[in-house]
Structures are given as structure tokens and as C-alpha cells.
Amino acid sequence: MIHEQHILPAYQHLLDDLLAAVFKTVGEAIVVANEAGELIMFNNHALEIWGYASEDLLGQPLSRLMPERHREAHADGMQKYIETGEHKVLDRRVELEALHSSGRVFPVQLYIAETRIEGHRFFTAAVRDISEVVEAQNKLEQAQQELQEANKLIKARNKELRKEVRLDSLTRTLNHVAIKVQIRQEMDRLSRSNRPFSILFIDIDDFKKLNDDLGHLQGDDGPPEGAEHLPEQQRFPVDLKPGSRAVAGEQVVDLAEAAHRQGGVAEAPGVHAQPAEVA
Fold first, then answer.
1. What is the pTM of this model?
2. N or C: which end of the chain has fewer CB within 10 A?
3. What angle do CA 267, 269, 273 make, to 5 degrees?
4. What is the distance, to the nearest Å, from the Cα of residue 189 to the centroid of all Cα atoms in its chain?
5. Torsion of CA 223, 224, 228, 229, to 10 degrees
6. What does the pLDDT read at residue 59?
7. What tens digit of pLDDT does each residue of 164-173 get?
8. What is the dihedral of CA 269, 272, 277, 279, to 10 degrees?
């Protein structure tokens, strides 16, 4: 009920007509129910979003506008409020589900207020269909989820690429650039601790003959198999740093930690003695 202080006195006699105009033109659906939960008034916008004609709703229970799964809770809440004054939805905006005449459930945002006139209670709800808002939110959440998944794939791919750029495409061992970086890092580390090391450049003899006799496909397998063969045969009595081996063309580069120069030179002929087994 509008108090006199909220309207100019000169227009007080037009109050009913003004309220009717507001009721008709307001941008939200307006629904009014009595304390028995019967629909006694609503505007055209309410009929539009629920899909009913006026005669279908007047005098009908308010619960007709909500999905059946919510009706019992609504009735219990109404009864509790009448008896105790306790409530959860009055005088605040809440989001609930509504039931269209076609049976379609759609989301609404509503604000419910109570008015008491001559000892009677009336409940007025301003209702807004937020289907488009919820749909937009769902699409945004889906897009964000897809973006997160795409970022995961990109990170995984970048990790693979960072690994790939360090490997020779044929031998799948460290390439020239990577082995140089690896050797420099190991040299710096070992130099700080004053530990000896040896870098061995191992060449496969008669590699051209191997290709000519067996073919390039077989020949290409020689260097990587040779690199794998070294630690298995344990030709170096030293601690081989993992990942410190590279293959390039017909050469194998090996970084042997804790091997002084004489030790590395002494062991090198042992490698040279087994080319037939490696090939």
C-alpha cells in the first residue's frame, strides 16, 4: 500500500488508476496471492512467461506455477510462516524454478513481499524469467572449461616440443645443441666440486660400408644401438650421467663423470674393440 508521502496530494485520487498503469507496464511479471496461497491478481507479463490465459489462473493455487517437486516444501514453508513468522524467501531476491503451462521448467528470479490490509495477508512477487541469463552463464562456464582443457593440451604439447627440440629425429638421443648444453652444465658442476671427468667422442668405423652392405635403414640403427650398448656392457668403470649421451651421424658422445684424462684414454680402446658386436 502506497503511503500518502510517496505521492503528490493533488494526484491522490488517481492512485488506483496509477497503480493499475504501473501494474500493467512494469517490466517484470507481478503475481499476488492471498494467505491461503490462491492467485488473486497478476499482470499480462506473468501470463506471457507462464503461458496461461487469465481465466486459467485466477483462484488457482500458487503452487501451480512451480514444478511438482517444490510444491510440498512451498506449502510447508507457507504454513510455518503463518504460524511462527519464520521465512527464507521474503524481502530478498532468490532464484527458483518455475513451471510453464507446456510442462517446461525454467529458471526465475523473484522478490516476494508481504502486505497486510484489513487483517488479511497478501504476498506479491515480482518475477523475472532468467532463462537467457542462465543459458549465457552455462555457455560461459562451458567455454571456460574448454579453454582450461585446451590450455592443458597446449602445456602438454609444449612439454613434448621442448623435449623434441633436444632430440635427434633419427636416433632419439640428445642432438648437437642439447649435448653442448648438457656438457657445459656438467663441466660447470664438476668443476665446482673439483671432480675429474672425460668427454669421449666415439666414432663408428666403416660406417659407410655398413650402409652400403646392409642399406641405410639398417645403417641408421647402428649409432643409436651403439649408444644403448655402451652402458649395458659397462665399458666405462665410471658413473655415467643419465642423459649425457648423444648420437650424431656416425658419432657417439659420452660424458663420463669421475674419469680423469688418463682413465678416459685407457678405456677408449675397449670401445673400439667391439664394433662388430655393436653393429
1. 0.55
2. N
3. 125
4. 41
5. -30
6. 93
7. 888 777 666 6
8. 160
